[in-house]
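Researcher: Structure prediction, please.
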Amino acid sequence: MHSCGLLLVVVLAVALRTPGVLRPLLGTFATKNCVYAMIARNWASGHAPWYLPTIDQLVGGRRGWHLTELPVPVYLPAAAWALLGGSLEVWGRAASVAWSAVATGLMYLLMRRQGPVAALSAGAALAASPISIIYGQSFMLESSVAALSILCIWANREWWQGQGRAWLCLLTLAMAVMLLTKPYMLVLMVPLAIEAWRARQDALPRWRARFVTWAMALTLSTLPAVLWYAGVWLIAAPGSPAAAHVYFSLRRSVADHSGGYETLLQGAFYVQAVKNLCGPVLTPLGAALAILGLRGQSWRCYAPWLAACLLLAAALPLKFQAMNYYYVVVLPPLCALVGLGCEHAYHWLRGQSACLRRAGLLAALLAVLLGDLRFAWRPAFVTPEEDRMVVAAASAVRAMSHPGDRVITLHGSTLSLLYYCNREGWAIHAQSPRFENRWSEALAGGARWVVATQPEKLAPLPQVWARLAELRPVYAGDGFCIYAIGMAGSSTSADSSRGGSTIDRMSPSLSITADSS
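Model: Predicted structure follows.
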């Protein structure tokens, strides 16, 4: 029965995420997706070492470093892409789906001692959570972090229940990868330590020796993260020669959110948190079941895990308020409560009539289906209108430029167009107060092409429109326009000058098929 339940929740997790695997990395948090895709591509292509995550945005004359974490899970699809070919974004999305399936399976295995209903419900809650569906098929790290956190909790529990050292090795490896991937997951030490204290209270044989071994293993697991983060902290330090090439760093992230604690004093933060929990995180049904799971004593063994998640939300309030993908890493203990709540509801329904049981089951299935459609469908599977020209625009740029050419992209505030161009360059936000400085930096850095999406919306911006008026338009597509800087594209212009105006000289039939990236 356990094997069937495990298979069911894993298949459910994969089935709910597979429809989005072939989509381009556009839409919800596209920049985050494309940053990791750039890091993967630059490492696999030999443009950057693994210990310096590098993107295509030029900083200080070279590809910039994104030093907020060492995204170890990103290198797995990058290696598969380098060895087997295909589409990098499909590999990245498929890896995220695989991590989601692993997390769902681990959730089931962790909860099975609470009973088959609790295990099946907790796994299904994680598989069907809208927030987990949205980011569990994106080229992002959150699904892998969620899976690794569940693995740490499970392996730690098995160790303190007297199991062998294989569980401690598994805990050490999972913790090391998780901390390198997301340093804030250090809060997971709280439930791990409390589990050790409970084992002492339960008089586990040879507790002291096991504790020393456990402490040494956890110390070892933190060592790679301590060394790497200390190194990048020094790289991004003011006055460091290497800081000129840092696009974004942990040091800057800490500075940006250092004043976020005032958010905890605002009622709007808690209103937003409740909306998220009752909306895309758990849906109204899941939130109600999680509250029901607080009934009885069983939930207390998950209380330290919940406390660690609350501590994380209190430490990073601005991130939880503005970026709902942070809820993915705190979702597992909430799903454990949902499983316990379903266990209580199941025992209550067993005492009711068969008609009421069927009605309750049908209502639950409809609520889950409607919740998923309401909160997950558009952000997970629909490309927004304003992003639909990105792939075609980037393909046109690749068709008329050389791999070494540098480009300027004007597509909102995202890096997605720059990623699909597969060229190093500058993604400039047209409405940024630093537009003039960024534009001058790009021209001085050797930019040869400019690609602007929805150019008609740039007309009300005088500083942008004046800059574009100085350039030579060479191609107009559906929703985008490409401009040449200096002599870029001049040979093509001379060959086709008899054919019509500058914009029309390149036929829309120009080959713009997507390459393997």
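Model: The CA atoms of residues 162 and 205 lie 8 Å apart.
Researcher: Thanks, that helps.
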